[in-house]
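User: quick one, fold this
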Amino acid sequence: MPAQDANSPPLVSFIAGGVAGGVEAMITYPFEFAKTRVQLRNQSNVASPRNPFLVVGQVFGNEGYRALYKGCSTLVVGSIAKDGVRFLSFDAIKKSFADPETGVMSPFRNLLAGMCTGVVASTFAVTPSERIKTAMIDDARTAKRFKSSLHALRLIYQEYGFLGMYHGYAGTTLKQAGATAFRLGTYNILKDYEKSHDIAQTTFTNFANGAVAGTVTTFATQPFDTIKTRSQSARGASTVNAFKSIMADEGVRGFWRGTTMRLGRTIFSGGILFTVYEQVAAILNPLFK
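Assistant:
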């Protein structure tokens, strides 16, 4: 997540973060689609490729390019809410974790602030949107019941109640808390190293730092992401059952299924998120000051 301008009003952070999250989600969605398809449990007696690139080619050939964006609107809306909440809440949480006398945050407190921000984002935005998106992607290859995101929302609510929107909450929250902490921690370590060696902070170095941070984050939190995907399939499952099904199907290596596509997305998403956020904030700041 890009560093916030200390002079930006909270509303600017919320709007700029939301716009950046929506743009990033729309551009990188095919990566997310393929990753989710690979992580979902295979249908009985139906062979499914494990290579995400083969998944994209197969879906494109059989269902057309529009199928690659199944569930995209849900993820875009969720990303707008997630990144808006993330930017806004991180600013507030960061202040509460800062040293009361100096206002400085240690690396450990920075990680704690990032973890708390991930929990807030998962609770209020990420888990419900991920539940609908994953269910739609799963349904598109099986029963094909869902006609739209709103239709999926209505059916899930009718069949599982309000808590049905929070299937996979534990896995999603662990992933969000870990991802936010790892991304911020790695990014800040790299930035401090560069400053100590007089390496200029440019758009290129920021993008490179974000790419490295995204790589570390992906490998560290991929098991949580895989468990989350299994939990949020069309039929839904508990976190424990999702864990058991992955172990039964593929063993420990199964927890890292979909890493390639998620890695492709996180490398690009950091640069896109940072660029769009800065541009939107630069436009809005004069209007709100």
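User: anything notable?
Assistant: The mean pLDDT is 81.
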